[in-house]
């Protein structure tokens, strides 16, 4: 049976809904690409502070995963698109190490009309498999528009 596609007009009805995202891991290659792509190799040309755990995943690396994780959890909808609208609150609560299995959870907190679309607030939580304490919690706004609507 084919998965039913969420209608754009139904977004307000998603408030309170929770999606469990696809578990994922980050490895040494992912970390290296992130460090080069964000110029961390320039910020720390002589290497990291010795006290920084060698296998620790950067908090901003985890944060950069929000878009891909949310899009995947929402089934890559082709009837709407979104822009990053901003973050209200982000907390890095527990360390994540390369190779840890990260379990994403997305809860829709608010949907507010804005122009031709909706501002959507989701709380994204990343938890390391086998732990109870979240590693990251982010309240993230998106501006969602129906496919075909352009903005300037």
- What's the mean pLDDT score? 90
Radius of gyration over all CA atoms, rounded:
17 Å
First and last CA, distance: 39 Å
At the first level of CATH, the class is Alpha Beta
* CATH overall fold name: Thiol Ester Dehydrase, Chain A
Shape: globular
The helicity comes to 10-25%
Largest sheet: 5 strands, antiparallel
- CATH H level, superfamily name: Hotdog Thioesterase
CATH architecture: Roll
Order of helical and strand elements: EHHHHEEEE
Structural class: alpha+beta
Strand order of the largest sheet: 1-3-4-5-2
Per DSSP, the total helix count is 4
Beta-strand residue fraction: 35-45%
Uncertain segments:
none
Key descriptive features of the protein:
single chain; 152 residues; alpha+beta; Thiol Ester Dehydrase, Chain A; five-stranded antiparallel β-sheet; 4 helices; 18% helix
Description:
The chain has helices at 28-37, 40-43, 59-64, 66-73; strands spanning 18-20, 80-92, 102-114, 117-128, 134-146. By secondary structure, the protein is an alpha+beta fold. It has a single domain, classed as Thiol Ester Dehydrase, Chain A (Roll), CATH 3.10.129.10. Strands 1-3-4-5-2 form a 5-stranded antiparallel beta sheet. The longest helix is centred in the first third of the chain and has 10 residues, at 28-37. The chain starts with 17 loop residues before the first strand and ends in a 6-residue tail after the last strand. The mean pLDDT is 90.
């Amino acid at each position: 049976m084919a998965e039913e596609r969420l209608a754009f007009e139904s977004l307000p009805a998603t408030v309170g809904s929770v999606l469990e995202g696809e578990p994922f891991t980050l490895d040494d290659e992912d970390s290296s690409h992130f460090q080069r792509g964000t110029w961390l190799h320039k910020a720390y040309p002589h290497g990291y502070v010795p006290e920084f755990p060698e296998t620790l995943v950067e908090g901003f690396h985890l944060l950069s995963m929000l878009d891909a994780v949310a899009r995947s959890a929402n089934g890559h909808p082709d009837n709407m698109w979104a822009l990053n609208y901003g973050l209200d609150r982000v907390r890095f609560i527990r360390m994540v190490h390369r190779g840890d299995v990260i379990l994403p959870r997305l809860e829709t907190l608010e949907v507010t009309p804005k122009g031709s679309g909706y501002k959507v607030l989701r709380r994204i939580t990343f938890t390391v498999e086998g732990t109870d304490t979240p590693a990251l919690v982010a309240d993230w706004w998106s501006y969602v528009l129906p496919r075909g609507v352009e903005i300037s």
